[in-house]
Amino acid sequence: MGAIRNIVILTGAGVSAESGIATFRGPGGLWEGHRVEDVCTPEALARDPALVHRFYDLRRAALRDVRPNAAHTALARLDREWTGDLLIVTQNVDDLHERAGAERLVHMHGELQSALCAACGVRERWTDALPPETECPNCGTFALRPDIVFFGEMPYHMDRIEAALAAADLFVSIGTSGAVYPAAGFVQMADAYGADTLELNLERSAGSGFFARSELGAAGELVPAWVDTVLAAQSTQSSPMSR
Ligand code: APR
């Protein structure tokens, strides 16, 4: 592997699993209690706003009972110590990456602790319940909704993500099933731009075949070990001895 300077990391529900947050498609997965179409589409929000708001209220409230795990902590350390470019692109809507200290981070599917006004487009930090018909503090209409990207809506930060993939030397996917696009297609974009690609996941995913390497195991074990390796290589890459 040539010298690595620019890294893009994609995380999915698997990175938060060991913190006690249910994944979507595993046993006991979040979608098992609901049909996706009933809670995560614009149509569902229009048809039954109380159900959709309550679904996200419960997930937002559950954030108080969970903590970042070793994978979040290791990625935050990488963010602090990596001197090249780094972007953590999370599909997750929890705040565990932030609470672990990550800063070079974007939430492409939105955030539980944010409310979006469907009328004026302003976002408000929101940590409590968000009932339907809540008044927007900015424009006064009663159009606040969960700031979650529903199926059929455009994910956030795509320009920044695509620019980072184009410049990446290494793309790492952690804890995602590779079931949902555009995130599932990032590995092919990174590969097409010449980046090395690595998957860290509990089991083979729908995208495993697109990665140069896949390591199977729990994120809480694989991610700290991988971060140690990358930071050790950085210190040898930059030390004068290695000139
Ligand atoms: N360590 C690593 N990987 C794990 C762990 C773990 N401890 N536990 C589960 N996994 C893996 C599973 O094997 C699975 O491949 O994490 C992946 C979780 O897949 P999904 O439940 O499909 O979650 P995700 O890939 O993040 O879903 C993508 O789908 O429903 C939408 O918007 C939602 O962001 C979500 C998107």
Instruction: Summarize the main sheet.
Output: 6 strands, parallel
Distance between the termini: 17 Å
Question: What is the H/E string?
Answer: EHHHHHHEHEEEEHEHEEH
**SS content category:** alpha/beta
Give Rg in angstroms: 19 Å
What is the overall number of helices?
Answer: 10
In which range does the helix fraction lie?
Answer: 25-40%
Strand order in the largest sheet: 3-2-1-7-8-9
Assembly annotation: single chain
Strand content: 15-25%
Query: Which residues form runs of ≥5 with pLDDT under 50?
Result: none
Give the overall pLDDT as a whole number: 94
Entry keywords:
243 residues; 3-stranded antiparallel sheet; globular; alpha/beta; 6-stranded parallel sheet; binds adenosine-5-diphosphoribose
Explain what you see.
This protein has 243 residues and is α/β, with parallel strands linked by helices. Helices cover 35% and strands 18% of the residues. The protein contains ten helices and nine strands. A six-stranded parallel β-sheet has the order 3-2-1-7-8-9, with helices on both faces. A three-stranded antiparallel β-sheet has the order 5-4-6. A hairpin with a 5-residue loop joins strand 4 and strand 5. Helix 6 runs parallel beside helix 10. Bound molecules: adenosine-5-diphosphoribose. Adenosine-5-diphosphoribose binds next to helix 1.
